[in-house]
Design brief:
The structure holds two protein chains of two kinds. Chain A is an all-beta fold. Chain A has no helices and eleven strands. The chains are: A mainly beta, B mainly beta.
Chain lengths: 111, 113
């Protein structure tokens, strides 16, 4: 399947600090999806990015798709304890039949 | 309520004893898929199905079987489980393929002794 690298693997932050996770691919992506998985839970869809340079916001979360469509980022402003979990990016292969997930970034927030 | 239902939630078994993990969705989704999640490896696709009677291998299909006889059900079968299949399994579905968002079940934690 399509290879996508996600960094960092773990991130500890103090509540109120910002957080960013990155996904990088060596090939051009058709789109990218982001999911959040709370501890003990299942992945939940957050957003899909399709266009080059696209930026989307959901409250304190900002999602970006790179101009070359080879990378993406998720930025959380002023983290809260409710943001704890693992954030995954997922990319579609060229045939459109497989969604490959990044390794995830586990976010821990100290109150 | 729209959902993907997996059963059982937890399963402990022994090597070689056949087992089935059930998955059912009530959203009339065409696409269904199985993933396994292991620490540090993210989610890896086992099998997927684009529609009834259409299934195909994902990245890690060895040791697994699936069937899609009805649109709503997509069971995962381990004919002869081995300890390296100890993992957290998720079923997922989407409407019309992977351009749409995936809905995940609650997961099945499987331990093979």
């Amino acid at each position: 399947g399509q290879q996508v690298m996600q960094i960092p693997q773990y991130q500890h932050v103090q509540e109120g600090e910002d957080f960013t996770t990155y996904c990088n691919s060596s090939t051009t992506l058709s789109n990218i999806q982001w999911y959040k998985q709370r501890p003990g839970g299942h992945p939940v869809f957050l957003i899909q990015l399709v266009k080059s340079g696209e930026v989307k916001k959901q409250k304190r979360l900002t999602f970006q798709f790179g101009e070359a469509k080879k990378n993406s980022s998720l930025h959380i402003t002023a983290t809260q304890t409710t943001d704890v979990g693992t954030y995954f990016c997922a990319v579609l292969n060229n045939a459109g039949n497989m969604l490959t997930f990044g390794g995830g970034t586990r976010l821990m927030v100290k109150p | 309520e729209a959902q993907v239902t997996q059963n059982p939630r937890y399963l402990i078994t022994v090597t070689g004893k056949k087992l089935t993990v059930t998955c059912s969705q009530n959203m009339n989704h065409e696409y269904m898929s199985w993933y396994r999640q292991d620490p540090g490896l993210g989610l890896r696709q086992i099998y997927y199905s684009m529609n009834v009677e259409v299934t195909d291998k994902g990245d890690v299909p060895e040791g697994y079987k699936v069937s899609r006889k009805e649109k709503r059900n997509f069971p995962l079968i381990l004919e002869s489980p081995s300890p390296n299949q100890t993992s957290l399994y998720f079923c997922a579905s989407s409407h019309g393929g992977l351009g749409e968002k995936l809905f995940f079940g609650s997961g099945t934690q499987l331990s093979v002794l």
